[in-house]
User: Which sequence fits this backbone?
């Protein structure tokens, strides 16, 4: 069988940082404003706190594509201007920058790619597919499509791309994860206003025999699972316009039952990872690294502990959540991108995603 490798990854980090302190200051101003102007409200809105955010999630800051609109209490959303149809979309621009770095790390040029997948939680438009726009911008001959499994989009795309390479449907695959999570986040909701940030990652997949990258990682096995849940939901969609009067802004943004997600997803992920390692004949104790989805620090510590059967060291399950917050499908790829250089030939690690759906992905990788 053709062995498939991740031959390079890239990361685009947006230009603006919002610290917890800045976010909380603006949120609390919004709360004071609403409470002052609505004295008849039965239950006044409550302040948010940076201490709570760090304790509950591990998040200290996030990167965003646009900052002023998010912090303006009369807007509380990123001011992302509408673009002309003949201008690159925002997601295309982010993806081109991430892809450039991935190509460099894979030691390839765009003509080595003939399949492009945009895999992320939110697409900027319904069609034409953003991936086809990126394909054109990179001068790639072949085919492209968009794929959305929320936070698990990247791992589902890795399995899809790998299968295309094995079946000889493609010679090189580019996967990009342009996540503009700030635009689906409800910055007026105290329960979740701190959760997300923006970023874009890129992944190059090739047959091992074609890869000339200095650090290719073989994909030993992949395993995906889904199980329907309404606990993370976003009702934004093309039918919204049909019954616009019954919709409110909050219904068209991210919402979740965070506690339930925590309780239900941790065992689902730990079971899937343990089972995947088991059927692949890999002893969890021998794992050098877990590149986990970055949604909540304690959640990751718990999953890593369940998989390794002991407390993980910070390097065994590296975290980027304090700096980036939850960047949906990009999170585990950022962790991989930033924390794989020290692995030795033969070392094995697992890349894993989890999130809305519910959806879980597990990719077992070996450093060549
Ligand atoms: N500032 C201060 N206090 C806050 C707050 C805020 N921003 N938001 C909530 N609180 C309060 C609550 O009102 C509650 O108070 P109470 O005990 O008096 O009722 C208390 O803090 C605990 O709230 P809870 O929602 O239970 O917090 P938590 O410890 O579960 O943490 C999450 C919340 C969202 C960080 C956590 O549940 C989580 O990360 N879950 C997993 C989410 C996830 O992975 N989602 C995937 C997204 S793709």
Assistant:
């Amino acid at each position: 069988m053709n062995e498939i490798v991740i031959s390079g990854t890239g990361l685009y980090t947006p230009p603006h940082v919002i610290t917890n302190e800045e976010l909380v200051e603006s949120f609390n101003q919004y709360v004071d404003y609403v409470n002052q102007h609505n004295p008849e409200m039965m239950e006044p809105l409550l302040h948010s706190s940076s201490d709570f955010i760090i304790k509950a999630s591990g998040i200290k800051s996030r990167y965003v594509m646009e900052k002023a609109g998010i912090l303006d209490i009369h807007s509380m959303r990123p001011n992302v201007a509408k673009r002309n149809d003949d201008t690159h979309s925002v997601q295309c621009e982010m993806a081109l920058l991430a892809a450039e770095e991935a190509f460099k790390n894979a030691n390839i040029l765009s003509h080595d790619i003939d399949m492009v997948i945009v895999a992320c939680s939110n697409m900027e438009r319904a069609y034409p597919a953003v991936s086809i726009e990126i394909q054109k911008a990179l001068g790639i001959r072949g085919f492209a499509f968009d794929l959305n499994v929320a936070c698990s989009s990247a791992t589902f795309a890795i399995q899809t791309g790998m299968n295309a390479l094995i079946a000889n449907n493609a010679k090189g695959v580019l996967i990009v994860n342009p996540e503009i999570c700030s635009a689906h986040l409800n910055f007026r909701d105290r329960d979740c206003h701190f959760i997300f940030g923006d970023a874009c990652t890129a992944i190059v997949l090739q047959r091992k025999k074609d890869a000339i990258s200095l650090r290719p990682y073989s994909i030993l096995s992949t395993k995906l699972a889904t199980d329907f849940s309404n606990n993370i939901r976003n009702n934004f969609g093309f039918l919204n316009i049909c019954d616009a009067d019954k919709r409110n802004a909050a219904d068209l943004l991210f919402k979740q039952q965070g506690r339930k997600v925590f309780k239900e997803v941790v065992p689902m992920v730990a079971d899937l990872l343990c089972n995947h390692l088991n059927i692949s004949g890999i002893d969890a104790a021998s794992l050098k690294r877990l590149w986990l989805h970055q949604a909540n620090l304690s959640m990751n510590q718990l999953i890593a502990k369940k998989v390794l059967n002991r407390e993980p060291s910070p390097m065994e399950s590296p975290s980027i959540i304090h700096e980036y917050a939850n960047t949906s499908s990009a999170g585990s790829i950022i962790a991989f991108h930033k924390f794989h250089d020290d692995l030795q030939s033969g070392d094995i690690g697992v890349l894993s995603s989890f999130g809305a759906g519910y959806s879980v992905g597990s990719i077992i990788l070996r450093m060549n």
Observations:
- The first strand starts at residue 4 and ends at 12.
- The pocket of coenzyme A is lined by residues 48-49, 52-53, 56-57, 151, 190-191, 232, 256, 258-259, 261-262, 295-296, 299, 326, 355-356 (CB under 6 Å).
- Residues 258-279 form the longest helix (22 residues).
- The mean pLDDT is 97.
